[in-house]
Design brief:
Aspartate Aminotransferase, domain 1; alpha/beta; binds glutamic acid; 15 helices; 7-stranded mixed β-sheet; Aspartate Aminotransferase, domain 2; about 400 residues
């Protein structure tokens, strides 16, 4: 037996690979601070844990409907309307094992060989791999720190061909924190209006983690005329510190939600019943703690940005959202060869980070600042010592 041609086209996730490596080293007794994975360090809220326990005690341990239970889909619809401003009936919502699975199903359900997918770079590691797994072609749209890592309407127009099927937008974005204001989304929407065959996947998983003043802007709200070809992805992993529960939600046109459900019925079936109970509590329960969590992330961001920029050879812009810094280390790369070697050197000095090349970037690395303040301070101290 050999592996399939589809699998040959993709590499393992480099964010999860680095995290696994850091765990292995820790288990072997090494002192490693992992800033590799994007995972809030806060404890999952008590009312969410209580709901998961209650579901277990109530024997809520059986299959549910594949796209999520009726109550779960209603709670997800509530989230889309209340938190993102996207009014959507439950039948236009699907619940999956993490946002990652929803994205995987959406792209696999719609792409054919030869199709093109536009992805602003730097990108989240899994986007291009999923596109390649589906047999389609990744078309990167380059962005720069000076441009806030955001694509322009002119770049979008130039990237679209008769083969373009999707634009993937992630705002606030992983790994750069790029956050699109409403007027820029409207400008992108004006281009998309001229290309009715292009769908948009708007990954809004980091919407609660936005540090720029003003409300979160999302394409389905700014360009309601395009709503029938936008899939908006969200979840509880990042907002409610529930990464291990594996619950992501997506809202979009009914035909697409049904197509994703068809695939999900054969890949995993329903998302975990216990996790659904926890996610219902997350969406229906109190949301006020999110404000204080965001403020803690903002404080960490500000400290990390100034500490990193004080290290000779490193530079990071201040991210507008999410909890990552994309750090340029170009002046130091001669010493190491490439960004991967630089990351291995940092790992030797006790800090796990992910090379920029994993994200379609170059000459640097990404850190997650979703770690507690003492760990962040020590990690930056180790990075400075390793590069001195
Ligand atoms: N999205 C997170 C990250 O980029 C989680 C890990 C992953 O699935 O890639 O670190």
């Amino acid at each position: 037996m050999t592996i399939s041609a589809a699998l040959e086209r993709i590499a393992p996730s480099r964010t999860t690979a680095m995290t696994d490596r850091a765990l292995e080293l820790r288990e072997a007794g090494r002192d490693i601070i992992s800033l590799s994975v994007g995972e809030p360090d806060f404890a999952t809220p008590d009312h969410v844990i209580a709901a998961a326990k209650a579901a277990l005690d109530a024997g809520d341990t059986k299959y549910t409907a594949v796209p999520g239970s009726a109550r779960m889909r209603a709670a997800a619809a509530l989230h889309f309307e209340r938190d993102l401003g996207i009014p959507v009936p439950p039948r236009q919502v699907i619940v999956s094992a993490g946002g990652k699975q929803a994205i995987f199903h959406a792209l696999l359900a719609t792409l054919n060989p030869g199709d093109e997918v536009l992805i602003p770079a730097p990108w989240w590691v899994s986007y291009p791999e999923i596109v390649r797994f589906a047999g389609a072609t990744v078309v990167p749209i380059g962005t720069t720190p000076a441009g806030g890592y955001r694509i322009t309407a002119a770049q979008l127009e130039a990237g679209i061909t008769p083969r373009t099927r999707w634009l993937l937008l992630n705002s606030p974005g992983n790994p750069t924190g790029a956050t699109y204001p409403a007027d820029e989304l409207k400008a992108l929407g004006a281009v998309l209006a001229r290309h009715p065959e292009v769908m948009v996947l708007s990954d809004d998983i980091y919407a609660p983690l936005r540090y720029t003043p003003g409300a979160h802007a999302t394409l389905a709200v700014e360009c309601p005329d395009l709503a029938d070809r936008i899939l908006t992805v969200s979840g509880v992993s990042k907002s409610h510190a529930m990464t291990g529960f594996r619950i992501g939600v997506a809202a979009g046109p009914e035909w697409l939600i049904q197509a994703m459900g068809r695939l999900q019925s054969h890949s995993s079936g329903n998302p975990s019943s216990i996790s659904q109970a926890a996610a219902i509590a997350a969406f229906e329960g109190p949301q006020d703690f999110l404000v204080s969590w965001r403020e803690r992330f903002r404080t960490r961001r500000d400290r990390v940005v100034s500490a990193i920029n004080a290290i000779p050879g490193l530079y990071t812009p201040t991210p507008d959202g999410a909890f990552y810094c994309m750090i340029d280390a170009a002046p130091l790369l001669d010493r190491f060869g490439d960004d991967e070697a630089l990351c291995l050197h940092l790992l030797e000095h006790g800090v796990a980070v992910v090379a920029a090349s994993a994200f379609g970037g170059q000459d640097g690395f990404r850190i997650s600042f979703a770690a507690d303040e003492a760990k962040l301070e020590e990690a930056v101290r180790r990075i400075a010592a390793a590069l001195a």
